[in-house]
Design goal:
Keywords: Membrane, Transmembrane, Transmembrane helix. This is Replication restart DNA helicase PriA. It comes from [Clostridium] leptum DSM 753. The chain is an alpha+beta fold. 24% of the residues lie in helices and 31% in strands. The chain has eight helices and 15 strands. β14 and β15 form a beta hairpin. The chain is flat, with a radius of gyration of 36 Å. The termini are far apart. The N terminus and C terminus are likely disordered.
Length: 412
């Protein structure tokens, strides 16, 4: 049911409505054709970028650009220019689709306020392909209920562009740690022990980081969002244009670029700690412990980009589950229910396997304890057997009866 806002609470918002100059149909970005075209007659239209090329900006000049930002507090509402329906915009929403006629509504003023998007990675997977990716993902969830294969299709995929900050930085620093060498020795009682001798180490670290990605959406607390990263913001990015988000939902950044850089610094520290561990192992040690890493960043630049995401919520037995699909790569993450009968069956099967192995081991031990091999026949008994004319006579007559190996008969 469409939400209605009282007239006294409606805020006037200017939106842009994209119409085909040939037939008046809605213009949208066609994922399959990778073209901006009319959904009615198919005529392509020109994409006009907000600015030429894609620039990186020095982070130390961020505040002067952010000062141009305009606050958009709370929800707002627009009237569809095509059918007149009332459309609700969230505080950070910048594009949506009219629920009545399907026309695109883009709040250009809000999207370009403050620091406008520098680039955009267009959708590569359409809705059908995204649903197939999720279907393949859910089939690999061993403990998912069988009924889930039917109910997940009820979730309607929504295509949206999520705001991100990307950062370039040169990081240099040093580390202290310990390198360990493992050795084995025997004590005076003959017992074997393994110990590790630790030695203090220190060294330098440094890397250049290109396009570290930090989500700036109000939905960035989603525990599944990080699982569908990364996006190719180096090779697959286009200069931003509002035409790309036509037909999709979009958001303005909720978290400032200077604040989000703190998250990028955590990524940098993790990478430098990994580099430090590799450096310690390269010194010839068996084990490595990093105790401290200190670093500083220089030549830090940033840009604001929009990245594609498919999102849906489906219901299973009265509980809601969300899943996300990377609109560029098809990587999937999300919540899903667990089947109690399947988990119980798996546990019982594991117990049965362990019980079977225990029975085999016990049986083998009991057999070994009770088994008594027959006494070896004497040389005289073997001779009697050979002379008795039994079927074994010919074989025994060719084999040495001496318990000592005779090398002269090795070719018999």
């Amino acid at each position: 049911m469409q939400q209605t806002i009282p007239a006294e609470e409606v805020k006037t918002v200017q939106t842009e409505h994209f119409l085909c100059p040939n037939c008046g149909g809605n213009l949208r970005y066609d994922i399959k054709r990778q073209l901006y075209c009319c959904e009615s007659c198919g005529s392509p239209d020109e994409i006009i970028p907000l600015h030429e090329g894609i620039r990186e900006y020095p982070l130390d000049g961020y505040h002067s650009r952010e000062a141009q930002n305009v606050a958009f507090e709370g929800a707002s509402c627009v009237f569809c220019q095509n059918c007149g329906a009332q459309i609700l915009f969230g505080q950070y929403d910048t594009a949506t689709v009219c629920p009545m006629c399907g026309s695109t509504q883009v709040d250009v003023k809000k999207q370009e306020s403050g620091i406008p998007p520098e680039g955009i990675v267009p959708f590569r997977l359409d809705q059908k392909e995204a649903q197939e990716k999720f279907h393949a993902w859910i089939k690999k969830r061993w403990f998912a209920p069988n009924s889930l294969k039917k109910t997940y299709q009820e979730g309607r995929l929504t295509g949206l562009y999520i705001p991100f900050w990307t950062y370039d930085a040169k990081a240099d620093g040093w580390f202290t740690g310990r390198g360990g060498r493992t050795r084995t020795y025997r004590d005076k009682d003959g017992h074997t022990h393994t110990t590790t001798d630790w030695y203090p180490v220190r060294g330098s670290v440094g890397q250049f980081f290109n396009d570290l990605q930090v989500c700036a959406s109000e939905k960035s607390n989603s525990k599944y969002l990080n699982d569908v990263l990364p996006y190719d913001t180096v090779n697959d990015i286009k200069p931003y244009s509002p035409q790309y988000i036509s037909g999709f939902q979009a958001e303005k950044y909720a978290w400032r670029g200077d604040a989000c850089f703190r998250l990028a610094e955590r990524m940098i520290k993790d990478a430098l700690e990994a580099q430090a561990r590799d450096s310690i192992l390269a010194m010839g040690y068996d084990q490595a412990q990093v105790l401290e890493v200190q670093f500083s960043c220089s030549n830090v630049t940033y840009k604001h980009v929009l990245l594609p995401l498919w999102s849906a919520v489906f219901s299973h037995k009265g509980k809601l589950y969300q899943y996300l699909i990377n609109g560029e790569t098809g990587k999937v993450s999300g919540g899903r229910p667990y089947s109690a009968p399947k988990i119980v069956a798996a546990v019982l099967a594991a117990i049965a396997v362990l019980a079977g192995l225990y029975f085999l081991i016990e049986s083998a031990g009991a057999y070994a304890a009770e088994y008594h091999p027959p006494a070896a026949q004497s040389q005289a008994q073997q001779v009697d057997l050979a002379e008795s004319g039994s079927p074994a006579e010919e074989i025994l007559s060719r084999v040495s009866l001496s318990p000592v190996w005779d090398e002269t008969k090795a070719d018999v």
